[in-house]
Amino acid sequence: MYVGTLSFDLLLGDVRSLKEKRSLVRPIVAELQRKYAVSVAETGHQALHRRAEIGLAVVSGDTGHLTDVLDRCERLVAGRPEVELLSVRRRLHNDED
Predict the structure, then answer these.
(1) pLDDT of 2
(2) Cα separation of 11 and 85, whole Å?
(3) Distance between CA atoms of 21 and 16, rounded to whole angstroms?
């Protein structure tokens, strides 16, 4: 069994309130869940209105499939014009870790 995680640090565009922030972050989280069946949530910077951290986890029996899903998720977030991807942290774990 393999577990892959991604942590995205995002800078949001012209956002002036936490309500506007939620209106940008929620659709990204929902699309990742819907398209790739991953576990994903906003995990940091909740009190800041122009920053967001999104955490994502995938479980697979095959490292090739795991890497493919993580790559697709990263491309989806990086391709969103309303956010700037500041950094991505990727980790892979196996059941022996």
Answers:
(1) 96
(2) 6
(3) 8
